[in-house]
Design a protein that fits this description.
- The chain has 186 residues and is an all-alpha fold.
- It has two domains: 76 residues, no CATH class; 96 residues, no CATH class.
- 68% of the residues lie in helices and 0% in strands.
- It contains eleven helices and no strands.
- It is elongated, with a radius of gyration of 19 Å.
Length: 186
Amino acid sequence: MLARSPVLDDSELVDCAAIGDAAAQTAIARRPRLRAGVAAAIAEIGERSAVFALIGNPDAELTADGLRRIFDRFGEDASMREKLSMRAGLPAALRADIAAATSRVLEHFAADRTWLAPRRAERIARDAREQAIVAIARTCPPAGTRRTRGAAAHERRIDRGSAHARTGQRRFRSVPADAGRNVRAA
C-alpha cells in the first residue's frame, strides 16, 4: 500500500515514514514520482536501507540539500558513497566531498595495512583528491556563466590556507576554458 497507493498524499507519506520501520520507509522511498518533501523526510530520518533505496530511485525528487543531508548522515559508508556518486545531477561540491572522503578512507587503509608509509599514503591521497577536484571542475559550466557550488567548495579549501589547495588552484586556473566541452564530446 505504501509503495503504490495514489490515495496517500505527501503529508501522510511523511507521517508514515516518521513512524514506520525500515520496511515501510523503503516502500515509500521506492515510490514512482516521489516528491521532494517526502524524499527530504526520508533523507533526514530514514533508516540506512530506506535511504539507499531512495538514492536508487530515479523518480525521486532529491534536492541538493537532501543529497547533502544523506552524505552528512552516511558519508562514512562506502556503499552509500558509491550509490550517491552514481546519482544523476549530483552537485559538483558534493561530488568533490565524496571524492575527498573516499581518498581519506583509502589513505588510512593503505597506511594501516603498511602497504604504504603514512606520509606516502597521505601524498598519494592528496594528489588523487586534487585530480578529482580538477576533473569535477571540468564538468562545471564555463567561467562567467554562473558561479558553481564546485567552485565555491574549491575556494573554501583555498581560503583554509591549504598549500595543496593553492596548488590545485593553479592547476584549476590552467584548465582550458573549453576543457569541459572536450571531455563531454569524448
